[in-house]
Predict the structure.
Amino acid sequence: MQSVWVIETGDYEEYHVAGITRTLKAAVDLVKARYAPPYIVQWGDVVQDAATPHDWRGTPSATLIGYVVRTRGRNTGHAVQYDFTCFPVQ
């Protein structure tokens, strides 16, 4: 069975899909290419929690944090979170 990785971002009220890829590496590369400097200037590590490597749906998941340090007209001290979830497809 094949699977896809869904990239999600947003806040508690407005969560949306930012992309769909075949692998976690492709998902991370897509996000990093789309939100390159000056928007996001530093990336954290991709985190897959060893204790709970699955999300509430019971599927493999990971998280990537992007740090916004300097952007024109935007708050300069916040972080952006991207969540990656793997789903089987038929």
In short: The mean pLDDT is 80. The longest strand covers residues 78-89. Residues 1 and 90 are 6 Å apart (CA to CA). The radius of gyration is 14 Å.
